[in-house]
Amino acid sequence: MIPIAKPLIGENEKQLVNEVLNSGMLAQGSKVKLLEEKFASLCNVKYAVAVNSGTAAIHAALNACGVGLGDEVITTPFTFIATASPILMLGAIPVFVDIDENTFNIDPKKIEEKITEKTKVIMPVSLFGQPYDYKPIKEIADKHNLKIVEDACQSVNASFDGIKSGALGDISAFSLYATKNMTCGEGGMVTTNNADYADNLKKFRHHGQSEEARYNYHSLGYNYRMSDLHAAIALAQIGRIEEFTEKRIENAKMFTEKLKNIKEITTPYVVPNVKHVFHQYTIKTDHRDKIIEAFKKKGIGFGIFYPKPLHLFPLFSKFRYKERDFPVAEKIANQVLSLPVHPGVSKENIDEIVSTIEEVFKC
Ligand SMILES: Cc1ncc(COP(=O)(O)O)c(C=O)c1O
Description:
Blueprint: H1 11-23, H2 30-43, E1 47-51, H3 54-64, E2 72-75, H4 81-89, E3 93-96, E4 119-123, H5 134-144, E5 147-151, E6 159-160, E7 163-164, E8 171-175, E9 188-192, H6 195-204, H7 228-238, H8 241-259, E10 265-266, E11 274-275, E12 281-285, H9 288-298, H10 327-333, E13 336-339, H11 347-360
Parallel strand pairs: 2-3, 2-4, 4-5, 5-8
Antiparallel strand pairs: 1-9, 6-7, 6-11, 8-9, 10-12, 12-13
Bound molecules: pyridoxal-5'-phosphate (PLP).
């Protein structure tokens, strides 16, 4: 069996968790603080605020930008639900914009026509580990006085023009879920260079209290804190992030080289000057079902991220989206297939996956 995802947990993770268990201090404490420092330094930003999921990170980031009732947030429909659900949690309106068919990320050319006086934030997703096209989006945001929240849940350690995912917009939100490029089981992180946002994020995760003065509730907040147990795992993982990233990139390169002559398949496009960290290695093909059938027979894991764009789900029906609103996202959703690319995938695994695909297109 070659799984589509596999967390790599070593002795260091176990040792650090034991340290926390033995300390008797399990909740947010010194391990979270150290993790925040290391994460901020990884992203080259001033502040990183740990929370307990990527969903919480997005919720907190949008809240810090002042998103509230009736505000509009521009984002992509080709993503996981948790990009858009925090918009709804704040009583705001998700305004979808179609994607670029090569990068799978929001198409900057289609954003400006969707801006209204209610627009507050543009939220691109750095999908599958490839950072969004930050330059044109920053120009648009500056022109219309909007904030940029990056959904960086899949792009830890990625960069564009040498700028890290996490530092490309005003605030970025990361996930440390079990399948992510680094993990602590469940967890999240918010990054920013803005001290006011950092302060707001810290209150939001802690019932609206400041860390200095408890039982003094400034604003509506939640229990979005990360525990030191989780931070211990993430601390061990962040120490291996370069190794994990390099292995994913190496595996992706091998796939692209070996699959390049199969005309029924389009391998992932990597934008020049981008460090794509391959949270997913996602091919496009009109023969997805045939490949899946062969994978199932051989015990090869796969993923369809995402089988249907968000605007077509009943959750969004009150916004009156309909089929063909976002033709690129709708087409791509029928073509994408993600192959196992995580650091636990060996060269032999890649050969097996490639030969299985070659076999499909022989007859
Ligand atoms: C693009 C995207 N946004 C948001 C999330 C939500 O993160 P979490 O599952 O940690 O809440 C995820 C991960 O699951 C994701 O991939």
